[in-house]
Amino acid sequence: MSAAQKVQQHPLVLQAQNKAKYYVDQLDKELTKYPVLNNLEQRTQVPKTYAVLGAILLLAILHTINPLAAPISNLVGWALPAYLSFKAIESPSPHDDVQWLTYWVVFGFFNFLESFALRLVLYYLPWYFAFKTIFIIWLQLPVFRGAQTTYLNVLKPVLNNISSQSRAVAPTTTTAEAPVHNE
């Protein structure tokens, strides 16, 4: 028996293979819920689980190359939501309109904040764009309702606070009634 065969037959290697197969099977069950992935699997003959894991690995590799991290992150934040926003505009249901309008408000707000503090954030958190991409995906997926959660827990209180302060500071105008002349 060769050394390679001995390694392949080692109990720890067999246990790791069994665990990996279990997790791949579980992921495959979850991914079967998405018709797009089933269609992709039929057309390409590549198992959907491997396609998704490959896409995640590709994103991770692209995020390690820092000059590409920001454009990739922004592409993830723009491409699919733009397409789904166009579809939402054309659909009669208002639910998807709310999802994507809320997403764009939250996405725009965080990109605006990012423009002020990006260098500082990158200094302390070199993998910022990888985390941002995961955050963007969380915002996008209707299953998590990340955009609505962020809007209700972060943006709405901030906007309400700013709105109430601006009303308190804004001068009120009073109009004096002109005297009525009786003839």
TrEMBL record:
Subcellular location: Membrane
Pfam families to which the protein is assigned, alphabetical: TB2_DP1_HVA22
Keywords from the named record: Membrane, Transmembrane, Transmembrane helix
Keyword Cytoplasm on entry: no
Residues that span the membrane, as ranges: 50-80, 100-125
Main localisation: membrane
Membrane topology: Multi-pass membrane protein
Gene Ontology CC annotations of this record: membrane
Similarity comment: family membership: Belongs to the DP1 family.
Protein name: Protein YOP1
Origin species: Collybia nuda
